[in-house]
Amino acid sequence: QxxxxxxxxxxxxxxxxxxxxxxxxxxxxxxxxxxxxxxxPGKEGRELVAxxxxxxxxxxxxxVKGRFTxxxxxxxxxxxxxxxxxxxxxxxxxxxxxxLTNAWGQGTLVAVSS
Length: 114
Known about the structure:
Oligomer: single chain
Largest sheet: 7 strands, mixed
């Protein structure tokens, strides 16, 4: 069974840090690119935040470049998103996505406020 399970969301003050994790199972992890998306509660559409390609390269949205870092551990079947210098506008539900299977996680809420 293909499954993605996110964890690590929560509340943090502006300037703080959080790390999100995405545990994958049921498919060939090393063969898939992975992405983190986010969606502001109450708004339509998900924004692509970061991509981890199978070969190792990464890509980021301009809004998070220099603050967020996506990483993958093929042995642990885990994708992480380290988020530093968080801003109120980063508040959203964050979703993990596996391109190989088009699988989505359930989402984890990140709230940034003072």
